[in-house]
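During data preparation, a discrete fold description was generated, and the record follows.
___
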Amino acid sequence: MTIISYPLKASALLAIFIFAFTACSSSLKTDLLKQAVENSDRNQDYAARDHSRHPYETLSFFRISPEMDVLELAAGGGWYTEILAPYLKDSGTLTVSHYNPEAGAYFKRSRDAFEKKVSSNPLFQGVSVVTAEVPPTQPYVAPASKDLVLTFRNLHNWLARDAMESVMLEAYNALRPGGYFGVVEHRAPEDATLEFMQTSGYVSQSLAIQAAESAGFALVASSEINANAKDTKDHPKGVWTLPPSLRLKDENRQKYLEVGESDRMTLLFMK
């Protein structure tokens, strides 16, 4: 049998090239994120919680890319920062917001500890830290300067200070058109009262979506990546009863360890 081959048209060659380039680029981005999550230099106490927080799956869901300009709101101790910073350092940028050290002793200790990490830990190389008042008193960053804004387990703090929507508006203003806002938050029952949410550390998914939409966002998708059906959400010390806080210390410790970390919503919005 004679096999006759025909020359490919230029358009077909171009299509093959674009497909191959896109597949290679997507694979590279995935590999870089996996490397950042699996980095052996990470705080091992932090890395031990990956099975509860699913950083690889969560950041993939938020459509992160290494060339993005990213803002992480209320970075706390830097659990996600030590993944984000190495991932973004070569092609993108990472800005994180943190407490005003002049707001009180607790805020100063937390901010000083974070600044020490930024200055001494190679994983935090290139991170820019900005002060973010809650509620905001001035813009956190330049308007329309970010591709992605992220926040992890912070909505309840903002809600308790009647500032959830105003902080979300800062996230909206920080983004370029088409930019994304990724949210992970302890999830309250849908019939929870506002008082319960302001004191328990849990926020209902419908309230979080309503607040984001009021700030101008459109909901793109929700995910159950960080769901935990064992969490009954009726604990004596609210969400802080569960690990990693374990506010009751040794009282019923094994029970709460078996529950694990809280049930969490994972939401992606777009400007």
About this structure: The CA atoms of residues 37 and 55 lie 7 Å apart. The first strand starts at residue 69 and ends at 73. Confidence is low (pLDDT under 50) at residues 1-6, 11-24. The chain has one domain: 10-270.
